[in-house]
Amino acid sequence: MSGSTHLFKNVAWISIGQITSKSLRAIFVLYAARIVGVTEYGIATYILAQLGLFTVLADCGVAQLVTRECARGSSADQEHYVRTGFAIKGLLATIMLLLLFISLNFHSSAIQMSETAILLTLVIFVCDSMKDFFSGVMVAREKNKTEALINLSTSSLLIFVGIPLMYLEKTSTRLLSVYAAASLLAIIIESIVFYRAGLIKRSKIFFSHMKDLLKTSYIFGLQSGFMIIIFAFDSIMIGWYLNQHALGLYGASQKLPLLLNMIPSFIAQGFLPELARSAHKDSAHFSRVLSKALTLMALIGIPIFIGGEIVADKLILSLFGTEYAGAPQIFRVLLGMNLFCFFSGILTISLYAHDKQKNVVRSTAAGAVTSIVGNLIMIPIWGIIGSAIASVLAQAVMLILFIYDIRSIASVKLSFDATWKHFFIAIIAMTLVAVGLITLNLPIIIVIPIAAATYGLIIFKSVKKLITT
User: Fold this and answer.
1) What angle do CA 25, 59, 269 make, to 5 degrees?
2) Cα distances (angstroms) measured from residue 300 to each of 98, 204, 259, 328, 430
3) What are the tens digits of pLDDT across the range 153-168?
4) I need a labelling partner for 397 at 20 to 30 A (CA). Which of 137, 171, 214, 323 fits?
5) Are 33 and 41 in contact (CB under 8 A)?
6) Distance between start and end Cα atoms, the chain
7) 3-class secondary-structure state, position 210
8) What is the pTM assigned to this prediction?
9) Rounded to an integer, what distance in angstroms lies between the CA atom of residue 378 and that of residue 371?
10) Domain boundaries, the chain
C-alpha cells in the first residue's frame, strides 16, 4: 500500500468515525428532547453541561500529548508514554470525579436531580474520560478502523435501542441511563483491545515521561478548559439563576449550533498540513493559503447563518415540538456564535502552525472571562437570551484577538475579487427559495436541502476555482 493511500484510509476512517458518531449522538439527544419534554430535558442539559466541563478538566491535554508522542516514538517509548499517561489520567479523573459529585449535589434539589441521575452521570464521566485517552492512543497506533467501528456501533445503539427505550420512561434519568449504557459498552470494548495489545498491565511509571507530559500538556489543557467554559458554563449558570424549563429551551437552541461547529473544525484540519509546511518557510504562500481558507469559511458560514435565521422557527418546532416555542429566538442569537467559529477555527490552526499556542490560550481565556462576566450580568436582566448574547460576545472577543495576532505574522484578506458577484446572487436566490418554500408550508426536510442546493449550484464553480488556483 502506498503512503498516500495509507494516509487517505487513516483520515477517512477517523473522519467517518468522528463525524458519524457525533452526529448519531446528537440525533439521539435531539430526539430524546422531544420525547421527554422541555422540563426533563432541562435537567439533562444541566447534567450534561457539568459532565462536559469536568470531562475536559480531567484531561488537561494529556490525551493529545500521549497521542503525539506515541505517533513519534518507538514501540518501547509508546508503551512508556501510554502507561505514564494512563496514570496521570487516572489521577486527574479521580480528582474531577470527586469535584463533579460535589458540584452535582450542590444544586441537586433546585434542579430536581435524582440520586440515580447523579450516579449515572458519574458512570458516564468515568467511561468517557478513559475512552478519550484510549481513542487517542488507538489513533496514534493507526488502529483507526477499529476505533471508528467502536464509535459507530455504540452510537448506533443509542438510535436503534435507546430511542425505543425512551418511550417506556420519558424522563431525564432514562436518557442518562441509555447514554451510560452506550458509554460503558464502548469503554469495555476499548479495554479489551488495549489488554490484547499489552498496554493495560502493571508496570513501572516513568516519572521522566510524566514530567515531560505535564510540562507540555498544560497549554492544551488550558485552551480546552477555557473553551469548555465558553460552551458549557452558560448552561450551568442558567441552572443557578433560572429553572429547568429555561434550561430545556436553551439546551434545545444550543444543540444545533454546537453540531454545526464540526464543519469549520474539519475544514480547518484539511488546511493544516499546507499551513504548517509554509508557516516558517514561505510567508507569502502561507498568507495566500490562509486568505483562501478564510474566504471558503465565509462562503460556507455566512449562508448557514442567513439560512438558519430564515428557517429558525420551522426548524426548531419541527425538531422539538410546540413545547419548545420559546427556543427559536435563542437559536437565532446563537447562530452568531456559530458564524464567528467558522473564522476562529482556521485562525487557531494558523496560529498553532506558527507555534503561537500561548496567544491562542490568551485569546480563549479572554473569551471565557467574557462568557462568565456576561452571563453574570445578563442572565438576571434578560434571562436565557442574555446568556445567548454572552456566548456570542465571548466568540467575538476571541475572534478579534485572533485577528490581531494573525496580522503580526501574515498579510491576510478575503479573496472575494472573483467570487463576490456569484456569492451575492447565490445568497439572494437561496433566501427567495427558502422564504417561498416556507410560505407554501412545505416540510423543513424539503426546504433546507432545496435552498442549500440552490446556493451550492450557483457558487460551486467559484469555490472550485478558489481552491484549485
Assistant:
1) 60
2) 42, 50, 15, 22, 13
3) 888 888 899 999 999 9
4) 214
5) yes
6) 30
7) helix
8) 0.86
9) 10
10) 13-241
